[in-house]
């Protein structure tokens, strides 16, 4: 992580020296690299105890409630949406979709996946937060459908499947959940015919795919010409028009957009070293937290919630990983949440704490004076 930040920073400084950098490049460095990596490092300390993690879980559930309700209101009662800029058609490009306060249906969907997974974890517990968590768990799939964004749909599907395969109970319930999801989706589309028509249009549209192919091909040309340095951090949008070529079988409609593949985009701007470092960070960070086993603690252990957090991370990281392959991931919150959750799950490894063995559990409780009795018996 440090090496990638240093490489991107040096590339940005080089661009500033040449007069080619702007404020957006500086903010992008902070949003996409520095802040996520810092949060990954501090999350094991900030959320070291159960109380802090419970607070995070409730916060994510409340955020999910707001985003899910807002997503529904955007289409059925726009006048009730708060803040009102969310439904301002002059802002953003995803008008007509559930885009939330991000003004981006993809960012809204990715955060909803994370919050929905957190709500499912909270719904499995007893207590006063359970009713809200159940409502969020039910509303989240509806809100995800209303994003009308293919990367969100595919990412959410992959996230649910991969997370379910990690848990024996969820694995058995996966076919039932699939049937229920299809039924609910079918009912919603049948009840709102206009929504079904828009969803069909989103599934079959090719213009956005053509734009992605154009800029991704341009990134490959840059990588071929500048394999070690790229064009500089944050420079692709400014330079892309020089590298886009008219294809024989699809049009050029937009060239000043970012590469719609994050590892390819990092490589185009930082060269192959930058792309390799980014992939290494993801594999050794969030994806390692998903792949490495978290030992189950006995009930009552202070950390018996960590396996559940791994499931939340799995759903979030899978959806985020799918989006990273088909979009630039310009909005920071989905990335920040994935790296925070990875830090939570990898707490013991990052802090150098030995994990308990399968046989270990909490120390047996002694009755008052029990320790003295044990010592006297040993004598």
Automatic annotation (TrEMBL):
- Gene Ontology CC annotations of this record: membrane
Residue ranges of region Disordered?
353-379
Annotated O-antigen ligase-related domain ranges read 136-279
Q: Which GO terms describe its molecular function?
A: ligase activity
Q: Has the keyword DNA-binding been applied to this entry?
A: no
Q: Which UniProt keywords apply?
A: Ligase, Membrane, Transmembrane, Transmembrane helix
Q: Where in the cell is it found?
A: Membrane
For this protein, the parts annotated as crossing the membrane are 33-52, 64-87, 107-124, 131-153, 173-198, 275-294, 306-323
Q: How does it sit in the membrane?
A: Multi-pass membrane protein
What name has this protein been given in UniProt?
Answer: O-antigen ligase-like membrane protein
Instruction: Tell me what organism the protein belongs to.
Output: Pseudokineococcus lusitanus
* Source species taxonomy: Bacteria, Bacillati, Actinomycetota, Actinomycetes, Kineosporiales
